[in-house]
Amino acid sequence: MNLSEKRIKESLKLYFVMGSVNCLKDPATVLQEAIAGGITLFQFREKGNGAKTGYEKISLAKKLQAICKQHDIPFIVNDDIDLALQIDADGVHIGQEDEDPLKVRKKIGSKILGISAHNLEEAQKAIEHGADYLGVGPMYFTSTKTDIREVKGPEVIKIIRMNDIQIPIVGIGGIKQNLARNVIKAGADGVAIISAISQSPDPKLAAKQLLNEVEMAF
Ligand code: TZP
Ligand code: MG
């Protein structure tokens, strides 16, 4: 899937990021419920204590990818370029400490390339290096990721937009239902969420309420 910039912006609205360690129940069930609630994009991020590796990781990726395909939700892989290529994912997401984006672009061709940026300089560099969208954060404090950078809030997105940067942007980190609107108002095209959906007793309802908040904020 090679999405246009407009379609990427639209699909960033409610970006669900998840791996098995983030879930309170079976990840496939969580994903299905999140899709029923209206998520628009999915990232497989199999990381942290107890994360699956090897065959188990590939097998879970394929299972979640098949669910996304059934519902026309693009499937992005975090970090693991080889896995993304092996299963023909729709794209990859890399951070500042991961593989060189120029090398990644060579490997993935026209697949979607998302890059994490924490400030204006990183955003500009990521764009020069061919990012299709930016993940900017952490917006708020989160305990989902332990090695987070300083929390600067939605202000960072405002600064990036003030510098005439039009690339699709999604805010990430600690975003709960009541905070989503601040992120959109700052200039993001959407919110990327782990725990507010994956750890909810009702992922479908959580996704539905988040999507509603995002749509009301535009
Ligand atoms: N990158 C920056 S913060 C974060 C990632 C992957 C974690 C977001 O998780 P949550 O549970 O939505 O705060
Ligand atoms: Mg990474």
UniProtKB/TrEMBL annotation:
Residues reported in the UniProt entry to bind 2-[(2R,5Z)-2-carboxy-4-methylthiazol-5(2H)-ylidene]ethyl phosphate: T142, S143, T144, G174, I194, S195
Domain Thiamine phosphate synthase/TenI: 14-197
Keyword Cytoplasm: no
Residue intervals passing through the bilayer: none
Binding site for 4-amino-2-methyl-5-(diphosphooxymethyl)pyrimidine: Q43, F44, R45, E46, K47, N78, S116, K145
EC number, UniProt record: 2.5.1.3
Pfam families per UniProt: TMP-TENI
A single GO molecular function term of this UniProt record: magnesium ion binding
Cofactor descriptive note: Binds 1 Mg(2+) ion per subunit.
Cofactor(s) of this protein: Mg(2+)
Source organism, top-level taxon: Bacteria
CDD domains attached to this UniProt entry: TMP_TenI
Pathway this chain belongs to: Cofactor biosynthesis; thiamine diphosphate biosynthesis; thiamine phosphate from 4-amino-2-methyl-5-diphosphomethylpyrimidine and 4-methyl-5-(2-phosphoethyl)-thiazole: step 1/1
One GO CC annotation: cytoplasm
GO biological process: one example: thiamine biosynthetic process
Residue runs in coiled coils: none
Keyword annotations from UniProtKB, A to Z: Magnesium, Metal-binding, Thiamine biosynthesis, Transferase
Residues bound to Mg(2+): D79, D98
Reaction(s) catalysed by this chain's protein: 2-(2-carboxy-4-methylthiazol-5-yl)ethyl phosphate + 4-amino-2-methyl-5-(diphosphooxymethyl)pyrimidine + 2 H(+) = thiamine phosphate + CO2 + diphosphate; 2-[(2R,5Z)-2-carboxy-4-methylthiazol-5(2H)-ylidene]ethyl phosphate + 4-amino-2-methyl-5-(diphosphooxymethyl)pyrimidine + 2 H(+) = thiamine phosphate + CO2 + diphosphate; 4-methyl-5-(2-phosphooxyethyl)-thiazole + 4-amino-2-methyl-5-(diphosphooxymethyl)pyrimidine + H(+) = thiamine phosphate + diphosphate
Top-rank EC class of the record's enzyme: transferase
Function: Condenses 4-methyl-5-(beta-hydroxyethyl)thiazole monophosphate (THZ-P) and 2-methyl-4-amino-5-hydroxymethyl pyrimidine pyrophosphate (HMP-PP) to form thiamine monophosphate (TMP).
HAMAP family (UniProt xref): TMP_synthase (MF_00097)
The family this protein is said to belong to: Belongs to the thiamine-phosphate synthase family.
Name listed for the protein in its UniProt record: Thiamine-phosphate synthase
Species: Calidifontibacillus erzurumensis
